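User: I want to check something. If I give you two sequences, will you return the structure for each one separately, not as a complex?

Assistant: Yes, each is folded on its own. Here is the first sequence with its structure:
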Amino acid sequence: MVQKTTHFVFLLGLFSKTSCYLILIQEPKTWSEAQSHCKEYHFDLATVQTDEDRFKIQEIAASMNFSNRAWMGFYDGVFAWRWSYQDQNLGYNNWDALEDTTSRTQRMCGVIRNTGHWHVASCEEQKPSFCYDGDYFGGKFIFNSAKLSWRDALLHCRSKNIDLSTISGSTESTVVGQSLKYIYSQYEAWIGLSKNLWLWSDQSKVTWLSVKWADGQPDNADGNEKCGFVNETGLIGDEGCLQTLPFFCSEF
């Protein structure tokens, strides 16, 4: 029996030069099969990381009485640490010699301890933080004693038109570590390091402050959930790539 393929098309940015259609295809495929289909007949699997994207997903789901999960273009790809300030690559580092920086269980963020060494922590932990004023000559480290998650610390810094701190050399590591120990009497604090596990298949830049995970996601439940789905509310999660799901394509 040939399974009927159902399409629904919704236009994003109708009056924009970068107009993008979202197309729901309800024939279940694996993530790779879905991407191949999108690339052959449309553009790529859909990128879903703005409020507008999520609204259009909800519109499509409601109009088609769709209450399932569907593949989108999110996947567990490059495994690299980056600085939040200007999305810079990690050059200098001062990881503790015993620190495991390669864990792939969840998105991780970086702290500096009062030894000056860097360590890995879950981004959801509540810690003080250092903001960094890059416009100040030589840079200026600004301590925030409020215990926040890494994301909330980043939002706090950016609300002041600055960013979480970038540490570019051994002198800065030592100075910041010593200030934690002797001035602020703290063990560790967030800096601007985070590890981006996930990429968009169409090469769009991942905007982490805009990515909306469903409750409990990503959980990598079986240790092999490397592909992303979107649900009918526009929230995203991870799933094994060999699962067969409907999928959203994008087309320009």
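And separately, the second sequence with its own structure:
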Amino acid sequence: MVHVIKEYVRTCDICQKAKPKRHGQRGFLKSIPIPSQPFEVVTMDFIMDLPPSNGYNAILTIVDKLTKFAHFIPCTTSINEEETAKLFHAHIWTKYGLPRQVITDRDARWTGAFWEHLTSLVGVQRSLTTAYHPQADGQSEIMNQTLEIALTVFVFPSMDNWSDLLNDFSFAYNTMEHTSTGFTPSYLLLGFEPLRPSDLLASTSKSIARPTVEDPKAVNFAEMMQAIRSQAQDALKLAQAHMEDQYNKHHSYLDLQEGDLVMLNPHSLNLLRSQKGKGRKLQMKYDGPFEVSEKLSDVTYRLRIPASYKIHPVVNIAHLEPYHRDKDGDSRPKKHLNRADFEEVPEYEVEEIVDEKMVKKGQRKQRRYLTKFVGYSPEWNEWLSRQQLANAPRILKEWELKQRIQAPKKA
């Protein structure tokens, strides 16, 4: 009898949608495909609102996806698009060449017309992450959190000199073994380990004559540099250990397969209207169920969502919960959020069509177009019908013209 009651409650539609979940956030960090060479793919982000230091109060972080080699560039919170591009040019473009892909969040400096036009002109793929896909840019997120913790430990209690110590901090980071590669970023980028004073002294102590009279200032400077690097390494180790512990503590794993039923969290997706006098507290926590039509990765799934929802069908696992099917069919009451509760979500802007295919629908075949959306990397591409591309007639016409031009001429 107890088992029957538990199963009844477990499969209750209203209970599943009304009860808040107590588990950690779903989904582990989703890795971006591994690049073939250093600085082919980079992630960029800002650490803002730091204590003032020599006129700086922010840091631009640029990390190579392959080697994990990082640049920490002091700047200000008022930096604009053009100034950001100049820093990118000085520290990345002129040293390593242009990357094929730059991954950023949706900060205004990356989404504006200047940066969009610049990357288009030079042929760099611009990949923007969103709040709906939090694992997409985990490298920058963890890097920045680790850096903030390490910097706090490193410069405390004199928090106004962090810009003076940033180069030493960068050297310490890039010469430490990275947990994901087993090598230091410097070794993977340069092919050798940069020498430290201790390395030189150990190998040349017999061949170099020591001065009879030591300069106290030189001794103090060398000792201070060594102490700074040791302190930076200790701070980074502490920060990395803290971040690993915190991340694992608050995340759980969920594996969904095609055909599974899930509920969608409209609150975390910010899909609900905010109406004065009508709080969201008593609204259902989840809506659905929706069927999983395709597993795109460990953290992203395509759902069969009615067109009335006006949201992209590719959803991150952080916003999903498994739905337990009622064995009694439709005999028990169900609850759905009203479509009027939902915010009007803008349509996703089509960037280009990259491929087409014919699919069988019943007795007939229909054409489908592989569509890329503005601000999304190719993994978010979706096969759409001509009807679904009704608001992108120019792009569809350009694709059809291109196909006619490329089609082999009949003899």
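Because they were folded independently, the notes below concern the second chain alone. The first helix runs from residue 2 to 10. The chain is about 35% helix and 20% strand.
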